[in-house]
């Protein structure tokens, strides 16, 4: 599958088969995040793989929006390091995208669980604290996201995207759309 194909086929998958992902495939998915670019080439991200079913169930309670983690085959917790780089949020975001696309290439479904909350510090502290506590993550790491992974139970139908011309501009910004 070429990159554009993977991008075109990617959907969020939240229903998974009860089937493990082989270790070599998980390592490839981790590599995609590991090899993603970072601002100033600084190592402001870390990735934590969780495959323990009890822990996945526990993590599924982090926010009301990640119940699917309970039935995922594995998850990757994406951590940011503000102490290393001011680009930690961008670095972790691009790594998350690469991870998701590599999963698609391997026929593995992915779901994105937002943990870090940019507009509600109290809520972010609660969510991140819950994950830190569960996984023994140091306090200086920001818990940006948890990506759930598993073989898709169903393939969502093609998605209707918003009009391309409302998103893409050429040469100068067009307001009259
Ligand atoms: C920044 C971001 C945060 C997201 N947070 C959640 C989340 O907490 N829970 C969830 O189920 N999906 C989450 N998603 C997935 C989106 O809801 C999903 O990608 C979007 O509806 C588009 O659907 P598609 O991925 O099938 O194209 C998030 C996606 C992104 C990019």
| Strand portion | 15-25%
Task: Enumerate the distinct ligands.
Answer: flavin mononucleotide
Which structural class do you get from the secondary structure elements?
alpha+beta
> What's the rounded overall pLDDT mean?
96
Low-confidence stretches: none
- The gross shape turns out to be globular
How far apart the termini lie comes to 34 Å
How many helical stretches?
5
CATH superfamily name?
Answer: NADH Oxidase
CATH fold description: NADH Oxidase
Order of helices and strands: HHEHEHEHE
What is the class in the CATH system?
A: Alpha Beta
Would you count the extended β strands for me?
A: 4
Can you tell me the CATH architecture?
3-Layer(aba) Sandwich
Radius of gyration from CA coordinates: 17 Å
| Main pleated-sheet profile | 4 strands, antiparallel
How would you describe the overall organization of this protein?
The protein is α+β, with helices and mostly antiparallel strands. It has a single domain (18-154), classed as NADH Oxidase (3-Layer(aba) Sandwich). The protein is built from five helices and four strands; from the N terminus they run ααβαβαβαβ. It has helices at 3-9, 23-34, 53-59, 88-105, 121-135, and strands at residues 45-50, 74-80, 109-114, 142-150. α1 (3-9) crosses α4 (88-105). It is globular. The mean pLDDT is 96. The chain binds flavin mononucleotide. Residues 11-12, 14, 65-66, 111-114, 159 line the site of flavin mononucleotide.
Q: What is the element layout, followed by pairings?
A:
Layout: H1 3-9, H2 23-34, E1 45-50, H3 53-59, E2 74-80, H4 88-105, E3 109-114, H5 121-135, E4 142-150
Helix pairs in contact: 1-4, 2-4
């Amino acid at each position: 599958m070429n990159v554009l194909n993977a991008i075109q086929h990617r959907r969020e998958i939240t229903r998974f088969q009860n089937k493990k992902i082989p270790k070599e495939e998980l390592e490839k998915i981790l590599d995609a995040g590991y090899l993603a670019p970072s601002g100033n080439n600084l190592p402001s991200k870390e990735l934590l793989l969780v495959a323990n079913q009890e822990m996945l169930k526990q993590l599924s309670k982090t926010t009301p929006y990640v119940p699917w983690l309970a039935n995922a085959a594995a998850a990757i917790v994406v951590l940011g390091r503000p102490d290393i780089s001011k680009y930690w949020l961008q670095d972790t975001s691009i790594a998350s995208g690469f991870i998701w696309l590599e999963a698609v290439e391997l026929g593995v479904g992915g779901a994105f669980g937002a943990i870090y909350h940019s507009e509600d510090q109290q809520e972010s502290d609660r969510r991140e604290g819950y994950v830190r506590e569960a996984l023994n993550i140091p306090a200086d790491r920001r818990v940006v996201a948890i990506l759930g992974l598993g073989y898709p139970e169903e393939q969502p139908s093609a998605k209707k995207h918003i009009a391309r011309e409302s998103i893409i501009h050429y040469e100068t910004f067009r307001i009259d759309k």
